[in-house]
Specification:
Blueprint lengths: L13 E3 L16 H7 L8 H6 L21 H6 L1 H22 L9 E3 L3 E4 L2 E4 L5 E3 L4 E4 L2 H8 L7 H20 L13 H19 L11 H13 L2 H9 L12 H14 L8
Parallel strand pairs: 1-2, 2-6
Antiparallel strand pairs: 3-4, 5-6
Helix pairs in contact: 4-6, 6-7, 6-8, 7-10, 8-10
Amino acid sequence: MSFNDNAKLDPSQVEDVRGRRVGGGGLAVGGGLTLVILVVSLLLGVDPTAILNSVPTGTTTTDPNAQTVADCKTGADANKREDCRIVGYVDAIQQYWTDELAKHGSQYTLAPTVLYTDVTQAGCGTASAEMGPFYCPVDGKVYLDLAFFTELQTRFGAQGGPFAEAYVVAHEYGHHVQDILGILSNDQRTGPQSISVKQELQADCFSGVWTKHAAETGYLQAPTDADIASALDAAAAVGDDRIQKETSGKVAPEAWTHGSAAQRQQWFTTGYSTGDYTRCTP
């Protein structure tokens, strides 16, 4: 999926804190950590609390000559640079949901995406790259370390590519939509029929719905068959069953938090084929 070269990007919807780290005598974990555990997206089979206990402390400085998303002005920039591509996805996703929720009598509120490196402080506690992308309902922001997209390929075996990134970002904004609609739960029970799994599959479905309408926002061209295949490949790569089998050699459905590879593909496809978020009810 390519961006229209002349599309005007709004980089203010992305907070670029790459290269910065919380300094001082340690990294505080806020009271919202359980919410992070609930909505951590795509990274399965890892205990975030163990990760947080091992996060390095200290202060890093930002290279004043480094590129930032403030340089992302047009769709042409998004076609050339990964960080600008994320800006473009965020703009297109939020434009769609603003218009779509208004049709249904709801008001969408903009949620910034925070681009960071390694670790940063979120409203839900400490955000670590090891946790993968996630939405924090405490501060209403999406957190993303771009290194995750490399890990998606090297650790999870996904083919990767620009539209795998779009799927990930749209999934996280699916959680923000759930938050706006008042259906984002903090129930942490696990298993195939758990609320946690159902809302993750719904976020996949919301991602598919946005994909169906992405070109209507004016930022993007219509997705190709290869784009859809890339999204489905990424969805399967982060299925609970696939990750469990690769990490432990066995599948334990009772521990599922996000759904199986087949389920994640199914619900993205449901969203894409119907283009109707009200049909996203796993």
